[in-house]
Give the backbone structure.
Amino acid sequence: MTTILYCFFFGELKIGNLENTRNRTLHGVLRVQSCFRGYQARRHASERIRGVLALQSFIRAENARQSYSSLLRKHRAATLVQKNLRGWHARRYFIKIRKASVVIQSGIRGCLVRRCAGNVDLLNVLREFESKKEAEGDQILIKASFLAELQRRILRAEATVREKDEENEMLHQRLQQYENRWLEYEQKMKAMEEMWQKQMRSLQSSLSVAKKSLALDETPRMSDSSVEQSWESNGNHVGGGSSQQLAAAPRITGREMNASMSVIGRLAEELEQRSQVFADDAKFLVEVKSGQADASLNPDVELRRLKQNFDSWKKDFGSRIRETKVILNKLASGGGGGGGNESSPNSAKRKWWGRLNTSKFS
């Protein structure tokens, strides 16, 4: 009995093991089948995706080609429209310019015809007469007096035309002469202005030199007066009477220096005023000559008169400057000898400075 039970128990164990093996095998087969089917599904899906992408690329390329062709057609159409529009504008502008030029030409020709109306009428009558004569031949007889009158009128018209041409030529020559004279006048005016400017600069330089020399003259004399006053206070060389004379000398020299400075200042002011007046007059004459200003004057005569006035004023002013130089030289020499027969270094310095000033003014 135990043996039977033992066999039965071991038989059931074997059957369970076989069932487990069968179940495992079935599960493995199912896994393999599921993996293979998944692989097939993925492969079919990737093939479909590639096909869809290729189809989409073809469709998109076709759409792009169609849109590009439409844009190209539109661009060509716009270029053609712009070309036609620009050509229309150019033709319209050309027609407008041509009409305006025709109107201007017709106006000028009408003016010329109206000027020579008598001559044109004579020529028209003669042409009509010749045309009628050629058309009718010798059938119509014309009076000789009428022909002679026409010929005389034609000769008079030709003579008037020749006179007008000669007058035009003479006027052209006169205009050329006026232009040449105007150029010469401008050159003369420029030369006169340059000469006046040079002379004014020379006069101004001489006045500035005179002012500088007077300034240099005043400073050493004031220093000499201070030295003499110091000697007087110390009581080293001279007494009471001589010290009073030396103290009075610088005061007299200061008044003389002030007078000379005022004279030079007046000369400088006069130089500036006269130079401004001459410049304004020359500018006015140039404006009158060029027609910018209206005045009943002869520019050539006024220019000669202005030159004479300038020369006379220049001579007068030069003589006054020379007189002023002489006075300044006298003042300088008088300042050197005001102390009598002095043998001090101060008197030697004054004499040397007086020689320096005279060399500057000469």
Observations:
- The first helix runs from residue 2 to 115.
- DSSP finds six helices and no strands in the chain.
